[in-house]
Specification:
alpha+beta; Heat Shock Protein 90; 5 strands
Length: 141
């Protein structure tokens, strides 16, 4: 069984709650394990929060697009925004051996997305950032 959906978000942090509801409903329809749901939710919430918080230099409304698909045990998500060019995959991984109080703020969201997803790719096209996430999902997780 395959399914696809496209959802549009505004660049407002209040949209994070709606994202969680959408992902939960999508996962429930496709009988994802609680662990898979948790990992996809964390990755998408962190990445959307980063876009909303850092991608825009103005206070205008911007549309952020999420395309979700699930087929043959693989979830794909494409997050597209018209913010400043930013490839999160070029960001260095945080040094987890450093005590928490000595670490700079930020960077863990991208780290977690990398850890939880099977594959992440980034491209800039037509003035937009496009981050593609893939995760193999089995019901045994």
């Amino acid at each position: 069984m395959s399914a696809e959906m496209t959802v549009f978000f505004n660049n407002q942090l209040s949209e994070i709650e709606r994202l969680g509801q959408i992902v939960n409903e999508f996962a429930e329809r496709h009988q994802w394990s609680p662990q898979a749901l948790f990992e996809v939710n964390v990755a998408l919430e962190e990445l959307l929060t980063n876009v909303i918080s850092y991608a825009y230099e103005d206070t205008q409304d911007h549309e952020i697009t999420l395309h979700l698909a699930f087929a043959d045990g693989e979830m794909t998500a494409e997050l597209e925004d018209d913010g400043q060019p930013f490839n999160p995959l070029e960001k260095a991984e945080p040094d987890l051996s450093t005590p928490l109080e000595e670490r700079p703020i930020g960077g863990l969201g991208i780290f977690l997305a990398r850890k939880f997803m099977t594959d992440l790719t980034y491209q800039r096209h037509d003035g937009k950032n496009l981050l593609k996430l893939k995760k193999t999902i089995t019901n045994e997780e």
